[in-house]
Amino acid sequence: MPVQAMTQQATRHARRVYVGGLSPTANEQSVATFFSHVMAAIGGNTAGPGDAVVNVYINHEKKFAFVEMRSVEEASNAMALDGIIFEGAPVKVRRPSDYNPSLAATLGPSQPNPNLNLAAVGLTPGSAGGLEGPDRIFVGGLPYYFTEAQIRELLESFGPLRGFDLVKDRETGNSKGYAFCVYQDLSVTDIACAALNGIKMGDKTLTVRRANQGATQPKPEQESILQHAQQQIALQRLILQPQGVPTKVVCLTQALNVDDLRDDDEYEDIVEDMRQEGGKYGKIPS
C-alpha cells in the first residue's frame, strides 16, 4: 500500500464528521457540494485549493451522513458548522463514534480555528455548538415524547439560549431523555436550575443542574426573578402535560352546595339557569 494511502487510512477517523438530521432529499453529491462551499466561505480550507470534501456516505433511512475531509484541520474547522441550515433545516455536526481524541491531537488541530468567518454562512460562534464551559446546564428526566420545540419553550422561560442540544439515539433518532443548554445571559443559569430542578413532567421528574456540578445558589437579589420564573414554569407544565381524550362532557365544580339541592324548585331553577348559560355555546342534549 502506498505511503499516502496508509496515511489517509490512519487519519480517517479524525478527518470524518458526523452530520445528522438530513432531509429526505439529501444525497451524496448535494452534501459534498454544500459542505465544500461553506468550508470555502468561512475560510476553513487549509489543505490548498479545491474542495474540502473528498467523500460522503449517507444512511438515508436514519438521515445522517459521514463527511470525509481532506485534512484533520479541515475536519476540525467543520465542527464549527454545527447547526447550519441545509435544505431548510438545521443539521448537527459531530465527531463520529470512532473518533479518538488522544490520537487525533497528534495529527492536527482538534478545535475549529477561532478566526473562521462563520457570519458568512449565517452562523455566530457558539450559536449551536457553544455548549462547553462552567455555565453549561444538564437537563435530565425529560419525557421521551417531548419535542425539541417544547423543551426549548420551557427553557426559554428564563431567556434566549445560546446553545441547545437534545441528545438522541444515533440509530433511531429518538430522544434519550436528556439535553444540554447554555443561556445567552449567563446570570440566569442558577435561577433556571433552581426553578426547574425537581419539577414533575408527566411521569418523569426533571434533574436540572450545571453540567460540571460547580453549582451555586441563587443570590438574594435573584429571588424575585426565581419566583416569577417558577410561576411561568407552572403554566408550562400545564401546557406540556399529555392531554386526555376529548369528550362532550363538561364538569363544573364549586357551582352550588348541598342546601341548594334540597329544594326541588330551587333545583329546577339551577338546572334551567345552567341550560341557558351553557346553551350560549352550543346545544345541550342532556
Strand order of the largest sheet: 2-3-1-6
Order of helices and strands: HEHEEHEEEHEHEEHEEEHHH
> In terms of quaternary structure, what is this?
single chain
Percent helix range: 25-40%
**CATH level-3 fold name of the largest domain:** Alpha-Beta Plaits
- What is the name of the CATH class of the largest domain? Alpha Beta
Q: From the alpha carbons, calculate the radius of gyration and give it in angstroms.
A: 27 Å
| CATH homologous group name of the largest domain | RRM (RNA recognition motif) domain
Unreliable spans are 214-223
Total strand segments: 12
Mean pLDDT score, rounded? 78
Number of helices: 9
Structural class determined from secondary elements: alpha+beta
Number of discrete domains? 3
What this model shows, in words?
This protein has 286 residues and is α+β, with helices and mostly antiparallel strands. About 3% of the residues have low confidence. The termini are far apart. A hairpin with a 2-residue loop joins strand 10 and strand 11. The chain contains nine helices and twelve strands. The protein is elongated, with a radius of gyration of 27 Å.
Tell me the layout of helices and strands.
Layout: H1 3-15, E1 16-20, H2 28-41, E2 53-59, E3 64-69, H3 72-78, E4 85-86, E5 89-90, E6 92-94, H4 101-104, E7 137-140, H5 148-155, E8 161-168, E9 175-183, H6 189-196, E10 200-201, E11 204-205, E12 207-210, H7 223-240, H8 258-262, H9 264-279
Antiparallel strand pairs: 1-3, 1-6, 2-3, 4-5, 7-9, 7-12, 8-9, 10-11
Helix pairs in contact: 1-3, 6-7
